[in-house]
Design goal:
single chain; about 350 residues; alpha/beta; 6-stranded antiparallel β-barrel; 18 strands; elongated
């Protein structure tokens, strides 16, 4: 089949590579110029470089402007394949090929339309995620579904691992989708719009830890924001710190949300919502990174105790100096209370 590819970053690159490996005739690759903007600078494998290596004509553009539409028309594709395209594609373009336009979206549509689906799925506590091939229409990720593959989300998976596993599905779903189009056996399934959820583009603020969340949610939050994504962060004694590793405490704790309470097995426990009732698990922070880039173990960094906050204004003054004696923790091994 004659195919025009629209794609950017590693998602677009893997999609283009799959089309090449499937021996389809990729007659044009449309991609964005390289960018240092936030999320555009990560997962930044170049569609342009890959296309040029295989002598595929390349068109660089920020949007589907009249020049882009004209180039696609002259390429006469049987189908357009899109993965990781940052701007609106008009009906004049997506309805142009005989087989329309296929879009690859890394969620189980109609849930998690929008941006960063694997990360949001992990943060939201979903048990699975996946990859969907659907027909582009005038909505955002709302078109009829052709192929869908689900993957489980494990108890230790990171956001990065989910993204990579969804990318691994690209060759298989593309092969199945294009074979169905060629053979005339494609079966389209309309999405149930009542089940649709939309998640916005993530920004720096979305990595700020909210200590009113339960520890179970915060533990997933920390795992979701793994390198190369902006890490989960908070403020301690006026300094911004990134939380790199954490787990849910074995015991329940009482106190004030955001308070560094006590050591527990290589980390420090931070109390969460409704902590005054003493019935909730805490978040055990085991590894952090300071703004100087140095990583430290939680039990070493938080020796002075205090509070974690959502802004840099608090210096954690007035901490309780009465906490300092050694005791036995809940597993029977030495621990230290921290103030």
């Amino acid at each position: 089949m004659r195919i025009v590819s629209f794609g950017f970053q590693t998602w677009g690159c893997k999609t283009l590579q799959a089309l090449i490996d499937l021996d389809h005739d990729v007659v044009l690759a449309v991609t964005h110029p390289a960018s240092e903007e936030s999320y555009k600078a990560i997962w930044s494998d170049s569609v342009e470089e890959l296309a040029r290596e295989h002598d595929i004509p390349v068109h660089l553009t920020e949007r589907a402007d009249p020049e882009t539409i004209d180039l696609v028309k002259r390429a006469e594709p049987d189908v357009i394949v899109v993965n990781s395209w940052y701007n609106w594609i008009p009906p004049e373009l997506y309805t142009l090929p005989p087989h329309g336009t296929l879009n690859l979206h890394d969620s189980l549509l109609p849930r998690f339309t929008g941006f960063s689906p694997p990360l949001w799925a992990l943060i939201s506590g979903e048990s699975e995620f996946g990859l969907t091939v659907h027909r582009m229409d005038d909505g955002l990720d709302t078109g009829d579904i052709l192929i869908q593959r689900a993957l489980p989300i494990g108890p230790t998976d990171t956001g990065t691992e989910l993204v990579m596993r969804s990318m691994d599905l690209i060759p298989g779903v593309l092969a199945e989708a294009l074979t169905a189009l060629e053979s005339g056996t494609a079966v389209w399934r309309p999405q149930n719009k009542a089940e649709r959820t939309y998640f916005h583009k993530r920004s720096e603020r979305d990595s700020l830890i909210d200590w009113s969340w339960p520890a179970e949610d915060l533990e997933r939050f920390v795992r979701a924001l793994s390198d190369p994504y902006p890490r989960a962060f908070t403020f301690y004694r006026g300094e911004r710190i990134e939380v790199l590793e954490a787990r849910v405490s074995e015991a329940c704790y009482g106190g004030t949300p955001g308070r560094v309470i006590v050591q527990e097995k290589g980390g420090v426990v931070v109390s969460g919502p409704n902590a005054y009732r003493g019935g909730n698990r805490g978040l055990v922070i085991t590894r952090i990174r300071c703004m100087d880039g140095v990583e430290r173990r939680g039990y070493e960094f938080f020796r002075r105790g205090g509070y974690l906050d959502t802004h840099a204004g608090q210096r954690n003054v007035g901490t309780d100096a009465s906490y300092g004696g050694r005791r036995q923790d809940f597993a029977g091994e030495p621990s230290r209370d921290v103030a």
